[in-house]
Amino acid sequence: MKNIIKKSLIIAVLYYSTILIGCIKDQCTCDPVKNGTYNYTELRTTNLAININGDTTFASNILAADTVEQKQFGIRFELEYKIIAAALKKSAWINSAYACDCALSQFFIADSITSISLITLNKLDFNHPAGSDVTNYFLTPFYVYNPQRVSYYNILNLNQLNKAYNPNPTGNVPYDLYLRTTVPSKQMLAFELVFEFASGKKLTSKTKPVYLK
Question: What is the pLDDT of residues 91-150, one digit of tens each?
């Protein structure tokens, strides 16, 4: 009799556990997880007008004119990528059934970036004639909270752009650069951004000439 009761309890527990898991899974829908590799295939640049207000807020706008104040000048670059290989990754059954914790896709760069340089195509200042590398003159603004302020970091570094990432479903992610060094104004300038890769490939993009006033 005890064995019959024990078996009945086990069957009941398994039955209701199956129903519970089914309910959880119905409420927990995850996108398929993919792992793979990608390469950068194209580079584009655009001139910006970056307005920084009192070191607490900033806004970046595509520069429609060919003239901008020096303190506002910036460059936006965008790297287009292409996924080379991708394979579905199966999550652990217990994780997807109970935890409802959706894993993220991970893609790694196949042809890594070995160097990045921003070249001035005109004389920028006394120390930087045409053809000089002025990468360190540009930084990327971002928000810092508590206290709120605008800070800057160097986006043109290999660790940032060679890292694994989750594909952006809406397209490529733009990066904004801001001219943080004072240079002589009242001059026409243009720049060329150059990415070099382990395979020897290069991606380049030249900005439109802009007059700094």
Answer: 544 444 444 556 666 778 888 888 889 999 999 988 899 999 998 888 877 656 556 666
Residue 213 to residue 125: CA distance in whole angstroms? 15
pTM of the entire predicted model: 0.72
Cα 30 to Cα 104: distance, rounded to the nearest angstrom: 9
Is the pLDDT at 20 greater than 70? The verdict is no
DSSP SS3 for 123: coil
Distance between CA 164 and CA 82 in Å, rounded?
Answer: 14
Alpha-carbon span 120 to 130, nearest angstrom: 6
In degrees, rounded to 5, the angle at the alpha carbon of residue 46 between the alpha carbons of residues 45 and 50 is: 125
How far is 50 from 140, CA to CA, in rounded Å?
11
82-107 b/e (C-beta count within 10 Å ≥ 16 → b): eeeeeeeeeeeeeebbeeeeebebeb
- Look up residue 101 and give its amino acid: D
Residue from 192, 206, 183 nearest 68 by CA? 183
The per-residue DSSP string of 141-195 comes to EEEETTTTEEEEE---SHHHHSS-B---TT-PPEEEEEE-S---SSEEE-EEEEE
What letter does residue 103 receive in the DSSP assignment?
P
**Coil, strand or helix: which one is 41?**
strand
User: Do the beta carbons of residue 38 and residue 110 sit within 8 Å?
Assistant: yes
